[in-house]
Amino acid sequence: MIRVENLVYKYDPNDTPVLRSVNLEIRDGEYVALIGPNGCGKTTLIKHFNTLLSPTEGDVWIDGLNTKDPSAVGEIRQRVGMIFQNPDNQIVGMTVEEDVSFGPGNLNLPPREIRQRVDEALEAVGLTGYAGRSPHTLSGGQKQLLAIAGILAMMPKHIALDEPTSSLDPAGRRSVAAVLRKLNKQGMTIIHITHNVEEIVRADRVIVMDAGSILLDGKPEQVFSKVERLKALGMGVPQVTELMWRLQQMGEKVRTDILTVDDACDEIAALLRRIRKAASISPGRQARG
Amino acid sequence: MYKLGQYTPGGSCVHKMHPLAKIIVVIALSIIIFRAGAFVLAAVGGFLAAIILLSRLTVKYVLKAIRPALPFFALLFLVHLFCTGGTPIPPFPLWHVSITYEGLRQGALLVWRFVLLVLSASLLTMVTSPSELIIGMERLLKPLRFLGISSSDLAVMLSLALRFMPALLEEIDRIREARLARGADFNKGGLLKRTKAVTSLAIPLTLNTFRRAEELAAAMEARGYRRGPRTYLKELTMAQLDYIVIGAAVIAGAASFLFF
Questions:
Q1: Cβ pair A81:B222 closer than 8 A
Q2: Which of A109, A276, B25, B167 has the largest CB neighbor count within 10 A?
Q3: Does residue A155 sit at the B interface (CB-CB below 8 Å)?
């Protein structure tokens, strides 16, 4: 479990804080999408999960370990894996398998165990046939999968990802999303920063941040139904959600907590049925239909 | 692009030797090459030829490694040929120019030395993968810890440098193309102007490299990197043959250093 208590962070003591008293609890095995405009503090927040940053005020607890405790740093970094936006800048090995072995090597594991972890990690992301390849010959999506394999070899309980798919093509994006879902099903906590609506919709929970604070926190349907607030932040909502919202603005009685075409279809069909029914009762409205 | 001494995978006994043994042999060879006379140099040539055969490389492929250095060898030879005093070879001296027997001999010997040196270094990289080479270097530099230098830190630095070489080349291409798209021309003007055009690539490249380094450092830290000893996927163990080879190389190198 990741627990954040009154977290304040300033890059410089005289600066305005990047995070202003954030409180948050992420349960084991949750799939959390963290969204918000650029500069809202998302990246700063997840860098606290793996002790890359230390709180100016407040505390961050990972499975009961305080990130301020220097003796816990090694353990925390093993528990929380971190993936960054640019896969090129997180690959350190000259071959795929050497790169995956970097983390276990840092843990000083014996070669036999490193080999086992490397093979398992490569299999988990579907890169088994690429073990001897040089990383710069891989596609963008494969490079990001390699970065994920490098983290998996550390056997973490939680993975925090900072816009891992923003530089990928649709195929690469899909393969990364599929691997993340699979890991989540196996019980891994996923904290995923993204601007991609499709990826947000699939999360268990969406957290919206703005100007260093958490603005909205809830299931995707709940969060996205606050269309006006999201629009005020300059953030997109799924097209079907916006459609339902516009219908509501026009005075129709429809739900706006709708994210999929199927649900929208049902809701609109129900609306049409109601209109037809009303029309058959009061013939005066027929002219409008 | 042909890369100097590019690694050629193989299963020969030379490939399988411990990288430390191979590095020590090359160091011993370099000492011998610079200390020894013509007879020993011929023997070293024979030794390298034997290694080429043992590692199942083709002579033609190995000789390619010398090609980029040929102009340098030619210059070296000519300088010695014309600038060494001694007995002139007839029909020289013509006007002020003279070629001497001593010059011919010295030039040939020096070029042969350099050929052997380049050959032994490229042979090493041809039969040893970069990561093995780094493990070998780490072992070789281990005694430096008495000076407070950690050889595993050096090994990580070295492997990162090798890993990011292609990435930096790509980066240069990208910056160059961006400049070209905005009307820069790298092939026009005098030498000075062209040099200036190239330095205009250096500044964005340096800045990008720093940014990259910062991200890389964060990613390495996130994967639990800390200074000091670490373990590797492939742990190489020394065989009896490796010890024998190292012993022979050390004795031969020390002998030529002390007695010739």
A1: yes
A2: B25
A3: no
| A102 has a chain B CB within 8 A of its CB | yes
| CA-atom Rg of chain B in angstroms | 23
In chain B, which residues have their Cβ closer than 8 Å to the Cβ of A90? Answer: 215-216, 219
Instruction: Tally the C-alpha atoms within 13 A of residue A189's C-alpha that lie toward its C-beta.
Output: 20
A84–B221: do the CB atoms touch at under 8 Å? no
Q: A167 CB near a chain B CB, below 8 Å?
A: no
Give the class (CATH, top level) of A2-229. Answer: alpha beta
What six digits make up the tokens of A140? Answer: 């963008």
Using 50 as the pLDDT threshold, list the residues of chain A that sit under it: 289
The full length of chain B comes to 260
- What number is the average pLDDT over the span B128-146? 86
- Give the tens place of pLDDT for each residue, A142-195: 999 999 999 999 999 999 999 999 888 899 999 999 999 999 999 999 999 998
Task: Kindly report the backbone phi and psi dihedral angles of residue B219, in degrees, each rounded to the nearest multiple of 5, phi listed first.
Answer: -65, -40
Amino acid at the residue A180? L
* A90/B219 Cβ within 8 A: yes
B210 contact residues in A (CB cutoff 8 A): none
* Chain A residues close to B163, C-beta within 8 Å: 91-94, 135
pLDDT of residue A289: 44
**Helix (H) or strand (E) segment spanning residue A7:** strand A2-9
Domain segments of chain A as ranges: 2-229, 242-285
A252-263: pLDDT as tens digits? 888 888 888 888
Q: Which residues pair with A285 in a beta bridge?
A: none
Considering only residues B5 and A126, tell me which one the structure prediction assigns the higher pLDDT.
A126
Q: Supply the DSSP string of A248-271, one letter for each residue.
A: HHTT--------SHHHHHHHHHHH
